[in-house]
Specification:
The structure holds 2 protein chains of 2 kinds.
Chain A: H1 5-12, H2 26-52, H3 57-67, H4 76-82, H5 92-100, E1 104-108, E2 114-118, H6 126-136, H7 140-153
Helix pairs in contact in A: 2-3, 2-6, 3-4, 3-5, 3-6
Chain B: E1 2-3, E2 8-9, H1 16-68, H2 76-79, H3 85-107, H4 112-124, E3 128-131, H5 134-154, H6 164-190, E4 194-199, E5 202-209, E6 224-229, H7 238-250, E7 268-271, H8 276-296, H9 298-305, H10 314-330
Helix pairs in contact in B: 1-3, 3-5, 3-6, 5-6, 7-8
The chains are: A mainly alpha, B alpha+beta.
């Protein structure tokens, strides 16, 4: 099972144009699992980078990406809950920063109800980011639920 | 924001200004705490020395010349020890314990507002931040027993002569006194810690990595909280070490070689205040994984580390499990 992009290319000879890519049976499953592992590693890296930065901006962006969906409306409270934060003021500077840097857009429906969206029009890479985060990243809210459940078991 | 009821400042690490203000608050609280400890140590020393001078000076004065002139006749009034054993021991042991206790307290970098901050973050994650003070209880128990024996000696309910059992008792009692003095001090350094209880026998220790005296400049990673799990297993346990390495690698936990002093494995994680909850959850979930794998993964570990049992086909079982896992993953189960 390859864990590096280079190993992945070598294993399936993807950059060798003389050999045609044949995927049958187990190879197909292996191929899928290898891509899966690479994307999972990327998600872990996003998460770790988010915890290194002194501001919460990266985590807010990941929470918005996690919550965004075709039929979903995401507001600041949803982001706060997803990050398991007690007060909205804690994420306010991060949201302001992300809006200024054009990573998110904020639509003010009323004075207190603001819809947050990923700005994938200005940053097309955010589409892949959203797909990876939605599939592999566990939000702090999900982690708290898992940890609490385990703590109450024993 | 200042909490008017208990005058504890609410720390904010969400932006640069908030971080600077919070570090200033922690530094000033730490200095106040250290100053308080010094005052308490001085008071304890003053009380101890006063008692010593008050009790000993008349005795030394009375016996100074008698000790110089060697007289054969025994003078019971001049040589009798004037101090009450019970009171002397109580004062002596309490002074020693309190001095070490306050000295240690001055070194502990957790300040009231930081404790409040971590308490709140931990509570929000569904756990409880506790300060364990085991040394005080142990000191009370051990000293009460020694005081009781000294009291019986003082009122002459216990008397000594030169029989074997008497000498044995004297030596044992002397040894006990030493233990009752040393053990609580060891507990002050080893067992009085800030912990977060996860479940029975599972906990996370918190230690602060911060030097308030030297670091005067702003640094976002200035204030670090080191989270250490409870003991996992012996570092000589091959299977345990394998699982430990795998979990640490997957969760990006700190991987330090265990010291020669401690032959046990522990998970360790580093956090700064703003990501405390996230990092804390990381170590909790690592402990969860540890519990799930270490207790129930013996079959596959036997496959890796032990000689195969006669008539048991580990390889076959492992391949079956692997195939199953691949297809489940492929189907997104």
């Amino acid at each position: 099972m390859s864990q590096s992009y280079k190993d992945f290319l070598d294993k399936y000879k993807i950059d060798d144009f003389k050999t045609s890519l044949k995927l049958t049976g187990h190879t197909k499953v292996d191929f899928y699992n290898d891509i899966d592992k690479l994307l999972k590693s990327m998600s872990t890296i996003f998460d770790k980078l988010a915890t290194i930065a002194p501001m919460r901006g990266a985590h807010v962006l990941m929470a918005v990406a996690k919550l965004t969906g075709p039929d979903k409306v995401v507001n600041k409270t949803d982001v706060k809950n997803s990050l398991n934060i007690d007060r909205l003021e804690k994420i306010q500077p991060a949201i302001e920063y992300l809006e200024k840097a054009k990573y998110i857009t904020i639509e003010k429906k009323t004075e207190r109800f603001h819809i947050i969206k990923l700005n994938d029009r200005d940053n097309p890479d955010l589409k892949v980011f959203r797909e990876i985060v939605q599939k592999y990243w566990k939000s702090p809210q999900e982690e708290v639920e898992q940890a609490k459940k385990w703590s109450e078991e024993g | 924001m200042r909490n008017s009821l208990r005058s504890i400042v609410e720390l904010n690490f969400e932006d640069e200004q908030g971080f600077k203000d919070s570090v200033k608050t922690i530094r000033s609280e730490y200095n106040k705490k250290a100053l308080k400890s010094i005052v308490y140590i001085s008071i304890v020393l003053f009380v101890g020395l006063s008692y010593l001078l008050y009790g000993y000076l008349p005795y030394i004065e009375r016996n100074f010349f008698t000790n110089l002139l060697v007289t054969e006749s025994f003078n019971p009034e001049g040589n009798s020890f004037p101090l009450n054993l019970t009171l002397s021991w109580t004062l002596f042991s309490t002074c020693i314990f309190l001095i070490v206790y306050f000295f240690r307290l001055s070194q502990v970098k957790f300040t009231p507002s930081l404790i409040r901050y971590i308490e709140r973050e931990t509570k929000y994650a569904g756990f409880e931040f506790i300060r364990k003070i085991e040394s005080v209880g142990l000191f009370m128990v051990l000293t009460t027993a020694s005081i009781a024996i000294f009291f019986y000696i003082d009122i002459r309910l216990i008397q000594f002569n030169n029989t074997f059992w008497n000498i044995f008792f004297q030596h044992s009692f002397f040894f006990y006194l030493l233990i009752s003095l040393i053990l609580p001090i060891v507990f002050i350094f080893r067992n009085d810690k800030f912990t977060i209880k996860i479940k029975d026998n599972v906990f996370v220790l918190c230690d602060l990595h911060y030097n308030p005296r030297k670091n005067k400049k702003y640094n976002s990673n200035l204030l670090g909280i080191i989270l250490t799990s409870n003991r996992l297993c012996s570092k000589f346990d091959k299977s345990g070490k394998y699982i430990y390495s795998r979990i640490s690698k997957d969760r990006w936990l700190l991987r330090k070689e265990p010291s020669t002093m401690s032959p046990y494995l522990h998970f360790e994680e580093y956090s700064v205040p703003f990501n405390f909850q996230k990092q804390f959850l990381n170590i909790v979930l690592a402990l969860n994984e540890w519990e799930n794998n270490y207790t129930s993964n013996l079959d596959s570990l036997n496959y890796y580390f032990s000689k195969a049992l006669y008539g048991y086909n580990y390889r076959k079982k492992r391949l079956e499990e692997r195939n199953e896992l691949i297809y489940f993953k492929f189907l997104n189960f």
